[in-house]
Write a sequence for this structure.
């Protein structure tokens, strides 16, 4: 992947996360990525929609790899998920709760009007729940229960990030981490 192309994707992802899809214009992307305008159209001939889909994929690949890597740090599935969520709360606090929920930023603004981006966001959310599902399966949860809990974790986590950004404090993430831990303990095959 070209450095210029990557710069454009990374900056677009950052801008979408910070200010949303509609508030981010192509001129701002060109300016803040410090790339020539022609590069934008060279690498993304279909325009903003194509670039948005690439930015979502870029972010979800990084996020899911990070989640998967962090979950391997604890042998116990429940503790691994809890600790990951607490790390996310710590990170949000360090960032003054000014970032997070990058898929939501695109999904909420485009799902009703853009089928390509709706499908991209749907696939991105499915990819984000996979590391949780895999960890729960490895922890002895039944496949259908692991899938349902992974969807729940993903949805609750996304909502908690939005609440933390809105409140500008990590408390919603910390509350959700404790509640998910309790839910998982009650759902555990060893409970």
């Amino acid at each position: 992947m070209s450095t210029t192309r990557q710069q454009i994707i990374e900056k677009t992802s950052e801008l979408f996360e910070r200010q949303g899809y509609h508030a981010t214009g192509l001129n701002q992307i060109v300016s803040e990525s410090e790339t020539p305008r022609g590069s934008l159209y060279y690498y993304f001939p279909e325009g903003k929609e194509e670039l948005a889909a690439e930015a979502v994929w870029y972010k979800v690949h990084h996020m899911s790899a990070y989640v998967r890597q962090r979950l391997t740090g604890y042998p116990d599935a429940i503790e691994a998920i809890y600790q990951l969520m607490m790390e996310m709360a710590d990170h949000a606090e360090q960032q003054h709760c000014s970032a997070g929920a990058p898929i939501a930023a695109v999904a909420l603004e485009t799902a009703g009007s853009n089928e390509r981006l709706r499908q991209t966001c749907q696939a991105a959310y499915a990819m984000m729940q996979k590391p949780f599902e895999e960890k729960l399966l490895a922890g002895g949860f039944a496949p259908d229960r692991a899938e349902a809990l992974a969807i729940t974790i993903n949805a609750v986590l996304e909502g908690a990030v939005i609440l933390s950004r809105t409140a500008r404090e990590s408390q919603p993430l910390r509350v959700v981490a404790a509640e998910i831990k309790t839910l998982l303990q009650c759902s555990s095959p060893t409970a």
User: Anything to note?
Assistant: Residues 143-167 form the longest helix (25 residues). The chain has a mean pLDDT of 93. The chain is about 80% helix and 0% strand. Residues 164 and 171 are 7 Å apart (CA to CA).
